[in-house]
Amino acid sequence: VRHLLGIKEITPQDIQLIFETADQFKEVLNRPIKKVPSLRDVTIANVFFENSTRTKLSFELAEKRLSADVINFSASGSSVKKGETLLDTVNNILSMKVDMIVMRHSSPGAPHFLSRKIQANIVNAGDGTHEHPTQALLDSFSIRQKLGEVAGKKIAIIGDITHSRVALSNIFALQMQGAEVAVCGPPTLLPKHIGDLGVKIFWNVREALQWCDVANVLRIQLERQQGKLFPSLREYALYFGINKKMLDELDKEIVLMHPGPINRGVELTSDAADSHHSIILDQVENGVAIRMAVLYLLASKG
Ligand code: CP
């Protein structure tokens, strides 16, 4: 594998190898000196055409912990605003002797398109509503860390499934590892053919919470809905929002996850997001080790 374009393109064995490599990098990250020389001769460009906090910083930190040289590109403030194309932008960056591209783009398939045009390794850091493979890897890795294994666990993905790249990558990754997956949300935010992916469907959030071992709660992606949000945020919060009392009242302990950014008071109340049920900040912490593993493995294959 030369690129990480999506979970769909990798195997359960690849996931296992990424997790075992990330385990070793987690040990490194817990040492006083957190840096290793593994990518000392590698130059990586983080090319972000969409906003990001966690993914961008976590890739940059992972690259620096691996001793790579790093350059960062954001579309805002760049010559994209003067009309330069994606391919011209990336080819100009590559001509500066860059080896790997980590890219986030609003168009589904943008990294796949690039992979057919350029020689450098590409890591998809989120392509529109399509895939966000490193997020799914760090989510599964966090479940494995908390519950021992992913196989056999019941994971409910709750929220705006239609506009979420995190949902699709998680469904592929979790099923590949032998988990049972359900989705839950209002019908307007569930894709029409989602059942074809072999997932269970819940329209009632309390039933989904009662069924699952892990609730991975997603944000309502207002930026992808062109002002046509139905239900409204208030209605969504009323019928699908999760609070701590709902989690405390279950007759079992479940794990609460969220990829961020959280719309506090919409999909999660603060008392739920900040409760003992939540592993949200562990997910962020694990993102660095997972991204170190992905970059290291891709660079090792040349
Ligand atoms: N989870 C995630 O992709 O967050 P950012 O958009 O902040 O990178």
From TrEMBL:
The keyword Cell inner membrane does not apply. It is an enzyme of class 2 (transferase). The keyword Methyltransferase does not apply. Keywords: Pyrimidine biosynthesis, Transferase. InterPro entries: Asp/Orn_carbamoyltranf_P-bd (IPR006132), Asp/Orn_carbamoylTrfase (IPR006130), Asp/Orn_carbamoylTrfase_sf (IPR036901), Asp_carbamoyltransf (IPR002082), Asp_carbamoyltransf_Asp/Orn-bd (IPR006131). It catalyses: carbamoyl phosphate + L-aspartate = N-carbamoyl-L-aspartate + phosphate + H(+). Pathway: Pyrimidine metabolism; UMP biosynthesis via de novo pathway; (S)-dihydroorotate from bicarbonate: step 2/3. GO terms for molecular function: amino acid binding; aspartate carbamoyltransferase activity. It holds the Pfam family OTCace. L-aspartate binds at K82, R165, R219. SUPFAM superfamilies: Aspartate/ornithine carbamoyltransferase (SSF53671). PROSITE patterns: CARBAMOYLTRANSFERASE. One of its GO terms (biological process) is 'de novo' UMP biosynthetic process. Residues 152-298 form the Aspartate/ornithine carbamoyltransferase Asp/Orn-binding domain. Its EC number is 2.1.3.2. Belongs to the aspartate/ornithine carbamoyltransferase superfamily. ATCase family. Heterododecamer (2C3:3R2) of six catalytic PyrB chains organized as two trimers (C3), and six regulatory PyrI chains organized as three dimers (R2). Catalyzes the condensation of carbamoyl phosphate and aspartate to form carbamoyl aspartate and inorganic phosphate, the committed step in the de novo pyrimidine nucleotide biosynthesis pathway. This is Aspartate carbamoyltransferase. The lineage of its organism: Bacteria, Pseudomonadati, Bacteroidota, Cytophagia, Cytophagales.
